[in-house]
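Hey, I'm writing a tutorial for new members on how sequence and structure tokens pair up, and I'd like a real worked example in the thread rather than a made-up one. If someone can provide the structure for the chain below, I'll link this post from the tutorial.
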Amino acid sequence: MGSNRKNEGRVNLSYEDKEALRYAKALLENPGLAAKITGLIGMPIEKALQLLPGKWAQVVNEATRRSLETALQAALLTLDDKPQANSWEFLHKLAVAATGAGGGAFGLLGLPVELPLSTTIMLRSIADIARSEGERLRTPDAKLACLEVFALGGPSKSDDASESAYFLMRTALAKSVSEAAGYIAQRGLVEEGAPAIVRLIGQLATRFGVNVSEKVAAQAVPVIGAAGGVVINILFIDHFQEMARGHFIVRRLERTYDPQFVRAEYERL
């Protein structure tokens, strides 16, 4: 029966599903985090980055990788298929806001502590959104789809104008996600240094680290401080909640229609 529905999907999307896909694309292809932060702090991110100390990139890289490793373990151990019609996005915003106060007060020094905590909270919010869109989070594929969200972030200048940044990123991650899912399905838990996991974390960290750098740069602006750290963190989680909602709407439609058809319709909208 599922294959029949997919064959029907090759012909036409229902009105409701077309509007859902239109909404997903509006979320996924909106200006990235840098543009939102620039509007908030009133200066270009490039200028804000110049305010950071010399070794900031090393601190961000290490904190980003550790955060994603922590999030992966949290995904494997705690994400389940409890029925979930709604997602508690506001409550997760409050939790991340609390960590943002500390991040804003201690700046780069607080990042190794603050980022793994806020990333794990964001993962819980992403998982709630995934469940509300019908994901079965006991499967490795769905767990890793939650982690994929950290690599999403709207269009960039280098993206091919004929294709969406969203599908380009999913294509770039596809092989690593598939290998990691196979590894997790066989072993259950992740062993430190497993090649499939190292490759996936490395790819995710490259993209997620850009967003983390933008967040840290904004918190380095002298007028930001602890209060500004709260606002920046709320903006940070709001960005990934939007990416998650769009991502899991697309995945929901891919379970109903042929995935290639969904992608073609997405590009046409």
